[in-house]
Structure formats: structure tokens, C-alpha cells
Task: structure prediction
Amino acid sequence: MENLTEAKLYAQLQELIARITDLDEKSMTQIQERLDSLTKPQGSLGQLEHFAKQLGGIQRTSRPNIQKKAVLLMAGDHGVVEEGVSAFPQEVTPQMAYNIMAGGAGINVLARQAKAEVFLTDVGVAFPLDGNINHQRVANGTQNMTKGPAMTRQEALQALMVGADIADEKIHAGYNLFATGELGIGNTTPSSAIVALLTDSSIEEVVGRGTGIDDAGLLKKRSAIEKAIEVNKPDKDDALDVLTKVGGLEIAAIAGSILQAAASRVPIVIDGFISTAGALIAAKLAPKSTAFMIPSHGSVEIGHRKALAALDLEPVLNLNMRLGEGTGAALTFYFVEAALHILEEMATFADAGVCEQL
Result:
């Protein structure tokens, strides 16, 4: 993207946030009336009914629809891997990126099944990538956050706007349901730091084993996060400061894509722990953006439930997943579309000649 000054990037971010408004209550009321007229006890389809109303409120219509679905997968690396916080080396990030580009990753399989497309963007992978990938590299990964800020404020803003621009491009191409996704070795460490700070939780409450580190690795991970917070002293009331000091480039891009989706009135399904850390950043920057978020699954990562609770989101699925990539969000596409099929295809009491006293 164009190399803008920090001031111009911040102004763009504020303009984007200013475009985010409330859900349309009239459409939601109309959908509730329709749901209540269907051949079922009122409220008996639970979250499916909520999704139908939410999509109507987002799209400002009593007849919401899904045209094309996209998984916006952001890739970035993390300098904090120097501290031994991951079970895998950083070289795995580009290897997995090539696997995704070849269609062989878990997210490719689940996206194909859901008839969705995967768009991978290099926001900050440490190693140069070749091939058919969207190159929007802000930096070659973040810096080691135990020794200073993970990135500059300008880099954080640039990564936010990269995510926003990608979402905007896909919206103009006709996509109107998104899923967040991420790729990057070591990314549960900055995510844990973000969640600890923005939910006012202890390190022990939010730091999990990520890709499967052992007890010694878990202690290193907790120690690295504690040191990063001590060294950088992030202002937990300033999401941009938190993102800059202990965040990630791909986490920033996820937050930016959420903000753009909300500003453009497009629903976005939030994947697992890392994506929810990005969603927390977005929510702190623009509280109204949470209304455009759809939860997916409850990750095995211990901090994920705290992050979801802070967003007032309840997971749809509990499959003991911790892969990331957008896999849980891709599965949730089915439920979002199921809600609209119920709204459109289910008979009313009057249509079916059924007594309304169910």
C-alpha cells in the first residue's frame, strides 16, 4: 500500500471508525415478527434466530442474503519466537503459506466444502514469499517484544489499513460474508498479551500451549509476556498502544478487516484465539463494530473464552479446535446460511394451517 505518514494513516483509521453505525432496528423487528410466525415455538432455534436478525440489521433489510463468502487470511511472523515460545520454528510460516496457496491446508478443505474462497495476504512474514500471494508486507515480522515495542505505531496503523483495504476490495468484488483467519508461528504469544491487557486478566488465565509446547515452553511463554508488558508498559486503555507494543502485524490486519466490514455493513465471522485478539482491538477502537461480528468456535486456548466474553459473544461450536487459519469460522458459515434458509423457506402457522399454540 502507499507509504503514508503516521498522521495520515491515523486520520484514515478515524474516518473508517466514524462510518460504523448501529444495526437497523426496523429490519430486525420485521425479522423477529417473521420468526415468531414460523411453525415452531418462539425462540426455539436459538442462535440461528439471532443470526437471522443480526444479518437483517447489518444489511438493513428484512430479506438478508449471502452472495459470496471469503476467508480473509492474514500472515505475519513474530520476533518473540526468539524466546522459545513456540513448538515450531519460524520457517514453518512460509511453508504453510505455500501449502495454503496450493490448496492443501485445513482451511482450504473446509472453505471448499462451505463454497467459500480463501485469500491469503502476507502482511509481515519474516521470509520473502514467491508466487500467487497478495504481498502487502509492512515489515519482515515484528520485533522481539521482550526487548521493546513489537512494531512502530506507523507499522501498526499501516497493518490495520492493509486489512481494511483487503476487505474493501473483496466487498467491491461482491463478497458479503467474511471469515477471519491467520497464519504465523508464535502468534498465540502476542494474542495472549493483548487478551490479558484488554480483559484485565492475569497471564496465567490467558496463556495456553499454542501449537503444543511442553511445561518448560509454557513457562518461557508466560515469562516472555510478563517481560514484554513490563518493558513496554502498554496503556490498556489505548488499543493502538497495546497493538503497537505487544501485538502482531496479522492481528492488526484482522482488526482492520473487521472495522472495514463493519463500516461497509458486512458480517464477519471471528475465528479462534488470534482472530479474537484482533476483534478485541477492533472493539476497543470502535465499540459499535462488535454488532457486526459473528462468533464461531470456542478454542482450546484457555484465554479464548475470556476474550469472547469481553466481546459479549457466545461460541457456536465446541469442537476442541486450535488450528486457526479460519477453520472454525469456515465451519460457522453453514450456520449463518442455515439461519437465512429458515427465514426464507420455513412455513408460517398460517401457511401450514398449524395451531399457533405450540
